[in-house]
Specification:
The chain is built from four helices and 15 strands. The chain is of the alpha+beta class. The protein has one domain: Sandwich (Jelly Rolls). Its EC number is 2.4.1.207.
Length: 294
């Protein structure tokens, strides 16, 4: 009888430990470049260092370059450590984004807009659903992103998309399907990273052009991390609810500390938010009205 009771207790403890493990975010594990990604274009403009665990993208007047994930994912947690182009980076865009890559595509964007030497980078985020974007938000970063690596992450589940900078939430896009707003939950996405020239709009609306005498421009990536539901022919039925840490109940919303941090970013560093742009959008989008901190 005692042995039976002991065995039952062990099973309970193992079950509780499994639940705790599933709910807790796992520490990101850096993996070699070739395991999860491959070059997208201009292979000769990519340099691999540190045994393939670090990648440098080069932009010159002829071309930029980029790389993408081998797999396609529906929901998950994705992050990248990036060190931006130093010095005069006007006209350049360093990007880390997810995209379904079709006509009515879904997309989740980090775009880092270069600037003249000594001026701050601008981080632009955007969300496309069903091929429609125009949801730009822009912030100044509270550090120099060219000096060392910083971690940029996306948490994407059925309830929300959260953008993080070094674990500080800078933006939340809630699932507002009940308000008639499309939310990306059916189209799997690849993860893309790129460095390219966009001097027709990237810096001061295109007023500052790329100074090609400063080329090549170099952005560095490492810490490739993917923890998502990898797509298959049945990807739209990727039902992971309750099985992975990023779709547990506690990740359906920000916690109190995260909301305070988000409010701090909005008050101190936000320079543009489509939700408050009445000239461009006279009628506020429904998802903006639900956002309690706009």
């Amino acid at each position: 009888m005692a042995s039976s009771t002991h065995w039952s207790l062990c099973l309970v403890l193992i079950s509780l430990a499994s639940v705790a493990f599933a709910a807790a975010p796992r520490r990101p594990v850096d993996v070699p470049f070739g395991r999860n990604y491959y070059p997208t274009w201009a292979y000769d403009h990519i340099k691999y260092i540190s045994g393939g665990s670090e990648v440098q993208l080069n932009l010159d007047k002829y071309t930029g370059t980029g790389f993408q994930s081998k797999g396609t994912y529906l929901f998950g947690h994705f992050s990248m450590h990036i060190k931006m182009v130093p010095g005069d980076s006007a006209g350049t865009v360093t990007a880390f984004y997810l995209s379904s890559n079709n006509n009515e595509h879904d997309e989740i964007d980090f775009e880092f807009l270069g600037n003249r030497s000594g001026q701050p980078y601008i981080l632009q985020t955007n969300v496309f659903t069903g091929g429609s974007g125009n949801r730009e938000q822009r912030i100044f970063l509270w550090f120099d992103p060219t000096k060392e690596y910083h971690r940029y992450s996306v948490l994407w589940n059925l309830y929300q998309i959260v953008f993080f900078v070094d674990d500080v939430p800078i933006r939340v896009f809630k699932n507002c399907k009940d308000l008639g707003v499309k939310f990306p939950f059916q189209q799997p996405m690849k993860i893309y990273n790129s460095l390219w020239n966009a001097d027709d709009w990237a810096t001061r609306g295109g007023l500052e052009k790329t100074d090609w005498s400063k080329a090549p421009f170099i952005a560095s990536y490492k810490g490739f991390h993917i923890d998502g539901c990898e797509a298959s022919v049945n990807a739209k039925f990727c039902a992971t609810q309750g099985k992975r840490w990023w779709d547990q109940t506690e990740f359906r919303d920000l916690d109190a500390l995260q909301w305070r941090r988000l409010r701090w970013v909005r008050e101190k560093f936000t320079i543009y938010n489509y939700c408050t742009d009445r000239k461009r959008f006279p009628v506020m989008s429904p998802e903006c009205r639900r956002d309690r901190d706009v």
